[in-house]
Amino acid sequence: MLRSGVMVVLMALTLPVADGANASSVRLLDGPHESLQARVDLIQQARQTIDLSYYAIDTDEVPVALLELLRQATLRGVRVRILVDGLKSRLPAKFEQYLSSYGIQLRVYHPPQQGHPRWLNRRLHSKLMVVDSCNAIIGSSNLENEHFGLKQERGFVDCDAIIFGEIAQQTQVYFDWLWATPDVQPAPAKDSLGLDVLSYRPFGRSDWKNAWRDADGPADYQRLLNQALQRVVCECGVGLNPQCDWMAEALHGINIQLLHDCSSDKSEHHVKHRIIQMMDRAKQSMLIESPYPAFDRSIRTAISRARNRGVCVTILTNSLETTDQLNVYAAYQNQKRGLLREGVQLREFVGRDTLHAKTMLIDDCCWMLGSYNFDARSNHLNLELCIVSNDPAGAAWLRSNLQTRLAQSTPVPARNWILSVGQDATASKRARLMMKRSVIELYRGLL
Secretion signal: which residues (predicted)? Predict the structure, then answer.
């Protein structure tokens, strides 16, 4: 009975926000520097609470610098809670204990442990930071260097937004609900086989990674926290204590809805149904931006229905050269001919970085951004979190934001659908793609 009541409340949170005092504000963050600076500013300006829910966090300089700012926030009396996916946390156990000594609460979603085999394939994919229940950052960025411009080779191109008001309060309710579910537990020191999964973290070979593997004790961890913050300030150009007013250039008084799953087992498929409803309402144009368009049947048929209505459909995704998930690209490659035959315009991202933004723009009015990938995992397995709106001003801002990424893409010619874009991809990558295409349909539902 209690669970049913909670579900009703959470479902109500996805209804349109009323006009007037309860309307929300939103500001799209322009690039990795602004996205990082906004997070730094909100943490330093926090007075009561900071809650984070992320798919991935590791011991790169950027996330460790943010962890140092979170540690400093606890010294001001701010309550800090961090929730991360159980398979994507790269924080050593002793380091977690050090952070906990300052009052930082750390939990994981579906940690690997005996007795829950179904948990292994159900992941927490949201990317959210809520501050004082009134400000939040949502989007596609994970807490890793590659998402914030501090990279060694290839980086990720994301789309984040900072939100204020009623919509931020809704994200707080969502986080509180998720934090209290049985799916969220303290990080286990050992997995179901008795192997210390944390002993292999962090991964990689560098002086920084080696320093983390050698660290053993509070003094070592605090030294690494300080070094990370110094590097981020110097190399990323991040300012500390700038007192920036992020609301000054935001769009105010618009209706924004929080789109999320209403049960941790995704039995209601709420996100999928809502996305398809948005697609089915398209009348003129629909632009889907997804780094991993391994469309399942429901999304694929929604695209076909849109084309049958005469809707101009454009899909922006990675090329063979830029993709970091070859299995997903193989699944998309198998659908490419059918999409082109229906008149769908395909554009593939080119360059040194990997497209990671997840957005949708319909009729220059309805829009969505967040963690949703338009694939089977997003529809049936992973917990996703997005914001959606029917506000034309927000849609215009998103289109302007999208233009930068569209300018870095190349159209796929309808007559040449095999390897039309990404000709700079290595021969081995091409060969692996052809092999994967022959078997990928056997497990498309797990991509």
Answer: 1-23
Tally of domains in the chain = 2
Could you list the residue range(s) of the whole structural domain that residue 317 is in? 258-446
Report which of 210, 187, 427 is spatially closest to residue 320, judged by C-alpha positions.
427
Give pLDDT tens digits for 363-402. Answer: 999 999 999 999 999 999 999 999 999 999 999 999 999 9
Q: What is the dihedral of CA 415, 417, 421, 426, to 10 degrees?
A: -130
Residue with tokens 């442990």: 113
Q: CB neighbours of 392 closer than 8 A, spacing ≥ 6?
A: 364, 365
Q: Residue 258, SS3? A: strand
Query: Looking at this protein, which amino acid is placed at residue 423?
Result: Q
Per-residue pLDDT, 153? 80
Whether the Cβ atoms of residue 165 and residue 389 lie closer than 8 Å to each other:
no
The CATH number assigned to the domain holding 274 equals: 3.30.870.10
Whose tokens are 């070979």? That residue is 205
In angstroms, how far apart are the furthest CA atoms of the chain? Answer: 64
One domain for residues 188 and 61:
yes
Q: Which of 293, 299, 245, 239 is nearest to 269 (CA)?
A: 299
The answer to whether residue 252 sits within a structural domain is no
Beta-bridge partner residues of 362: 286, 366
Is the per-residue pLDDT at 21 higher than 50?
no
Question: Which candidate, 35, 106, 7, 55, places its Cα nearest to that of 377?
Answer: 55
3-state helix, strand, coil in the chain (%, to 5): 40, 20, 40
In the numeric block, which tokens belong to residue 31? 């690039």
